[in-house]
Design a protein that fits this description.
The complex is a heterodimer. By secondary structure, chain A is of the alpha/beta class. Chain A is built from 14 helices and five strands. In chain B, helix 9 runs parallel beside helix 13. The chains are: A alpha/beta, B alpha/beta.
Chain lengths: 368, 352
Amino acid sequence: MRQFLTFTRKEFYHIFRDRWTMIMLLAFPVIMIILFGFGITTEIQNSKIAIYDPSKDIATNNIATKLEISEYFMLEEYLDTPDQIETKFKEGKVGMVVVFGERFYENLLHTGEAKVLLIADGTDPNTASTLTTYASRIIMMYQQELLGIEKLPYSIHTEVKLLYNPTMKSAYNIVPGVMGMVLILICALMTSVSIAREKELGTMEVILVSPMPPLLIVLSKVVPYFVISLINFTNVLLIAVFLLGVPVNGNLFSLYFVSIIFIFVSLALGLLISSVTDKQLVALLMSAMGLMMPVVMLSGLMFPIENMPIVLRGIAQIIPAKWYIEAIRNIMIKGLGLKDIIPELSVLSLMAVVLIAASLKKFKIRLE
Amino acid sequence: MPRMVIMFPMMVLLIFPLVANFEVKNINLSVIDNDRSSYSRSLIEKVRSTGYFKITDIEDNYQDALTSIESDKSDVILEIPPKFERTLVREMETNLMITANAVNGNKGGLGTSYLVNIIMDFNDNIRTELTNNVNKLNVPFLSIIPKYRFNPSLLYEVFMVPALMVMVLSMICGFLPALNIVSEKESGTIEQMNVTPVQKFTFILAKLIPYWIIGYIVLTICVGIAYFVWDIVPAGFLGTLYIFVTIFILAISGFGLVISNYAISVQQAMFMMFFFVLTFIFMSGLYTPIENMPAWAQVLSNFSPLKYMIQVLRMVFLKGSDFKDLLPQFYALTTFALFFNSWAIYSYRKSS
C-alpha cells in the first residue's frame, strides 16, 4: 500500500512539474465552458431590422414602435425605396426587412387587405424563422389591441408552458455536453499521452521491473487523472451555476455518481489507446480524432442527434459521452432522480465494465 | 501530407453538414385528447399534416404525457380540454394547453411557435365556418407574409457549407505552418538555415508560398464538393473568393508561423494552435450568429480573422455580394495579414 501511494505521488509530481500539462488540465476546461456557453447562443436579441413603409400612418408607426421596443429587434433605419432592400441584405447590415403595404391603416380597418411582408435573410435558417415568428407575434398583438376589449368570437387561446428552461437559454443544453467533453479530454487524452510518454522515454521499463504488481502500476497512473477530473467537473459545475446561470435541479450526489462511472469509462479508453501505441503523437492523434471528434460531433453536445441521418445516429449510440450527456441533462436540468436514468446508467456501467476489463487485459507488462 | 490536403476537406464537407444541423423538424408530439370530438380530431389531423410534427402517442392524462417528455420520447404536449368543441361553440372561446421540453431552448421555443401558428390557422378556419352564415366579420384584419431571401426553403447546409470551407482552410493553412518552423527546430535543420545568408523576410515569405498553393487547392476542392454534392453554386463572382482566400491564408499562415516561432516543441505548438483556432472558430459566428452573443464576446469576435472570412464566403455564395460590398472585410483581413506576418518576421530569430 505504501508503495502504491509513493507511485501515485510520483504521478502527481509528473503532472505538477509540467507547466503545459497543468494548463491543459486545469485551464482548458474552464476556457471550454466559457467558449461553448457564450459562443453557442441561439437566443435572439437586438437583431437589426429595417422598415420600408410607404404608408406612414398611425398603424405602421405603432407597429414599428412595438418592434423597436421589443428586446428582439433594433431598428436600423427606414428605407426610402424598395430597391434598397436588396442592397441592405447584400451588405449584410440587417437580418430582416419589414415591408408594409400601401394605405395600410385604411386597408386594415375596411378592406381586410392590409399586408405586412417580413423579408428575412435566410442565410441562417434558424435565425430567419425565429425572427419572422417573433415579428409576427408582435404584429398580431397590435391587431389584438386594435380590437380592444371586443374579442373575436370563437377564439382558441393557447397557454404555453416551457418546461425546465422557461427563458430558453442555450447554456442549459450546452453545459451537460461540455462536461462530457471535458471529462473525455482529461481522462482519455491525458492518460493515454502520459503513458505513451513514459514508453517513449523508456521510463516505463524502469517502473515495470519494480516489485509493484502491474495492476497497481496502472492504477497509480490513473488515480491523479481521476482526482483532477473530479476537480474539473466541480469547476465546470461552479462556472455553469454562477456564471452561466444554469441551475442544478437534481440531486448533486447523483450527478457525481454518474460522472464517476463516466470517468471510469474514459480512463479505460485512455488506457486502451496507450496499450496500442508507444508514441506520444500517435496517442494524441488517436484520442483527438478517435474520441474528441466523435464526442463533439455526434454526442448531441451541440447538434441534435435526431437531425442526423440514420447511420450517424447509429454510431452515436456507441459513444459513451452520448449516454452521459443525456443522463446529466436529465438530472441537472430536468431534475429527475437516479431511477429515471436507469437506461443511461446501465449502458454506461456496461461500457465501464467491458472497457476496464479489456484495457487491463491488453495492458502489456512486458516491452518488446 | 498531400493526402491530408485532399482528404480532410472532403471529410469535413461531406460529413459536417449532415451533423451540424440546428434545424427544428420532426418534433415529437404527445397529444392528450380529453374531448374526442370532430374538432379535436381535425385539429390533430391538421397538426399531423403540416409535417413539422410527428405524433408519437395519444395519452389519457397529463402525468403520462409528462413521463414521455421526461424520457425524451416526446418534445411537446398538446392538451385538449374536455368539452373543447362545445365550449368553443357555446361560449365563443376556449383554451388549449401546450407544454414543451425547453432543455434545448431553440427547439422548445420554435416548436411551440409552430404549434401556436397551426392552432391559430385552425382557429381562423373554424371562425369563418361558424360565422359565415351569421354575419360578415367587421374587424381589423391584416395578413403577415414571411419570405426568406437567399435561402427560400431554409436549408441548413446552404448556411453551413460556405462557412465550413473557412474552417477547413484555417485548420490546414494554420496548423501546417504552426508545425513547420518548430519541427525544423526539433530536428535541428533550422541551424543550417540560420547559417545561410538568407534574409528573415525572404525566409518567412518562402515558408508562406506553399500554403498559398495548398489553400487554392483546398478551396477548389471545397467549391467542387459544394457544387456536386450539395448543389450549392456561388451566387457571386468566384474570382472574389480567390482574392479573399489569398489574403486570408496570408493572415492565418502568418499566425501559424508566429506560434511556430515561439513554441519549443511540436506538441506545444499543437496545443497552442488548437487553443487559438478553437477560440477563433467559436468567436466567428460559424454555428450561431454573433449578434446573439453577450456584448464582451461580440467585441472579442472582432479579433477573429475567421469571422470576416466566414462573412465573405456566406455573402458571396448566398447573396452574390461583390467586392464593393465586402470592403470592410477586405480591410480587416489585410490588417490581420500585415500584422501577423510582420510579427512572424520580427519574432523569427536566426540566433538563439
